[in-house]
Amino acid sequence: MNQQTESLNESMTESVTESQQDTLDESLSDAEESVVIIEAGPEAETTPAAWAEPEAEPGLRAARAAFVPLRAVAPDIMPRKEDVIELPASAVDDILAILSGAFFEQTGVDLASRPDELERFGEDAARVCEQLQEMDSALVERDQVLDTYYFQTVVLRETVMALQALREVEAERSGSIRAWTHLPAGMFMVPDQARDRLLLAQVQHEGRVFWQLNLGQLGGFKSPRAVMWLPQMRMLVTDQQSRQVTELCLDGRQIWQLDSENVAELALRSPVKSTVYFDSDGQKHYLIVDQGHHRVFDVTPDQKLQWQYGVTGQSRDLEGYLNLPSDIHYTPQRTLLIADTGNHRVLEIQRNKIIRSYGEADGLDWPVFAERLSNGHTLVVDQARHCIFEFNDKHQRVHECVFFRPGMDERFKTGKLNYVQRLGDDHMVISDGDRLLEVDWRKQNIVWFGQLKQLQQLIPQPVALLGADSGSGLLGKSFERYEAGSAAPELVTLRQMLMKEPLFADAPAPVFFDELEKLLRFRDFQPGAPIVEKGKALKSMYFIQTGSVEILAESDAEAGSELKAGESFGQAGIIYVEPRQASIRAKSYCGLYELEKKAFDKLIADYPDIEARVNKLAAERLVVAKMRQGQSTEKTQARFQEVLAMQKARFSSAHKTTEPATAASPAAAPAIKSTVTRPSFRPRQAEYTEAEKLLIHDSLAQGQQCLEVHVFLHRTSMMKGARAYLLCVVLGKLGTILRSIPSLEAIQSDQTIGYEVIVTLATQAALDQVIEDASSVAEVDKVEVVSLSGD
């Protein structure tokens, strides 16, 4: 054992546990045989003070593990044979950048200032490149670098190949103004503020990091808020806390930094984003978003301010002012998109004039990202809405993707968004500094999810491996991927909600829905806030984007049925205005789109088919309203006979389709699954015959919902038969009664009726309308609904 190994063994003795020491003793005993040394300097006559001082502080003792040869700490880390590939000559430059960057990180010495040593590292890089053509990795160790330092690192083939892919993309996009800001497919770059680092990761390798730059070790960085990949393998880093905008090369060396301390007009208060563009003369410009000063500005590499938009230190919602801007994007049309977050808008600027604006009327609340797509459309990410909007060149919203809503896995719920990166034209990575999501906004699903802290280097730092079980593997899973066909979370869009509404069936798309969306007003409600009050006329319909609402029972104190994101209520409000029989309130924080009857009436005047449907429904609502005001009339009796005849016809049809050729009983039908709309409700179980089950399945297949409506009459009711009779007539107007307890025949013959009536209804009416109409019958105490579905 040589002097270097003896010194290492001595210095490590006090910094490891007894079991760890046994492992180290065994490994270090044959360190010379087990370590691949690409180049070794002359044997040191004295042990370098950096790692030979035995009286070092405890914190420094642990750090010494980084100087132990990697294979001495974890024998499993060793190059393995792979399929032979040919790496281009440019790979040597990438390997040299990896080696010099690792050396700078470990020692603080920039090899660019030591050309002789840099040349020797270049020779190492060439040998590593040759080895990586047939191995998955190469271990690099050098002793007495610059007569002082011991250096070691690992170079992975995957890292070099990833960097080569970056070079290829840069070459392909060299003529583009903006395209090079997007990394190759499957790659993303993200700042990690909490850990003061920049990461390049690959989706296809479970989110593991193939390149990492620890900014904290470079000095001057405190909290990297944004990072942008630039040509020539560089990156632009915006550090919010240290108030710096810095351009770095791959190994961490500084290329340029905004002189915000010495140039007064460039002073920063809270920078959150920066980007680069080239003007028509090829001149490079930096665009910087200074959120704290409510401005964005353009500066050249020689620190000359070209222009700014927004008045420094003043926030207003007028032209020429900004309020807490979050993003800026230079478009191929040579305009600027600015996410003016505090003013709830996105501005498109040309020569300091607003040429286009997207705001609250377009559904925006807290936009934090805006970018122009290759097809000329504009993409906007709204933090408050948890939503991605796509607008076409005519200012029309063509796509909308909500990437979180109540009911989804809570891990997908992002807080304050501080990072958004587009991966091609239909994928996006979103981060709140804690978690990461990749969203395919056109297909409306989440591709993968992960915690930022779990993104890791392919080879961890040696100090983290002390005492690790070498058989457990060094690489962990960083995020959950949702493959095609798996249960990826589906996302709710406004367009989907509108198109599934029966009232708008057969409406000409997309023209009708484009116009309809413009009429909607977005409203927020806190938990417990009233939305609809009993006894007051309702003149609106609502579509739930996020959160949930509950339909209250008769007492207005007991919670009733729940409606969730993607559902709607209040259809009657845009058909026939009448006082509501039940209240509706927000169960959680929720966002609703409101459609007012007055605006809707104007719209359907241009669509005769929809207008005729609405007028017919309004006439039926008037009949129901009159029925509810009195007892049995000739019209009521006639209507009851229609309900009874319709049920018999449907039942007869079900029997014919299920009657076997040689058997008297119907064939076995699939099971029926029931779901209560209020968790605390425990319904009386209703048993269905095989024919009734098939009838329910048939109704579901036709796009209807099947509801089991449990109606409870007042205990003081003296006319239970009449109330049940009227109840069936009212519900029969909303659809087909498939079954009732008591039966329709028993109700018609005025047999003894209990205090609970159960009606199984196939309908396209909204749940709130069913509850509303059933509750409106006199002497009804409360209404509960069970949703039926195929098992």
Notes on the structure:
There is one protein chain. This protein has about 800 residues and is α+β, with helices and mostly antiparallel strands. It has four domains: about 150 residues, no CATH class; about 140 residues, 6 Propeller (Neuraminidase), CATH 2.120.10; about 120 residues, Sandwich (Jelly Rolls); about 160 residues, Alpha-Beta Plaits. It is built from 18 helices and 39 strands. The chain has a five-stranded antiparallel sheet with strand order 22-23-24-25-26, with no helix packed on it. Strands 35-39-36-38-37 form a five-stranded antiparallel sheet, with helices on both faces. Helix 7 packs across helix 9 and helix 14 packs across helix 15. The termini are far apart. The N terminus is likely disordered.
Short description:
With 791 residues, the chain is of the alpha+beta class. It has 18 helices and 39 strands.
Question: Secondary-structure map with pairings?
Answer:
Blueprint: H1 3-12, H2 18-29, H3 31-34, H4 49-52, H5 58-63, H6 70-73, H7 90-107, H8 115-132, E1 137-145, E2 149-156, H9 157-172, E3 187-192, E4 197-202, E5 209-214, E6 224-230, E7 234-239, E8 244-249, E9 254-257, E10 271-278, E11 284-290, E12 295-299, E13 305-309, E14 327-330, E15 336-340, E16 345-350, E17 353-358, E18 367-372, E19 378-382, E20 387-391, E21 397-402, E22 419-423, E23 427-431, E24 435-440, E25 445-451, E26 479-481, H10 494-499, H11 511-519, E27 521-525, E28 530-532, E29 540-546, E30 548-551, E31 562-564, E32 568-569, E33 584-586, E34 590-596, H12 597-604, H13 608-629, H14 634-658, E35 672-676, H15 690-701, E36 705-713, H16 720-732, E37 735-741, H17 744-748, E38 756-763, H18 767-775, E39 780-790
Antiparallel strand pairs: 1-2, 3-4, 4-5, 6-7, 7-8, 8-9, 10-11, 11-12, 12-13, 14-15, 15-16, 16-17, 18-19, 19-20, 20-21, 22-23, 23-24, 24-25, 25-26, 27-34, 28-33, 29-32, 29-34, 30-31, 30-33, 35-39, 36-38, 36-39, 37-38
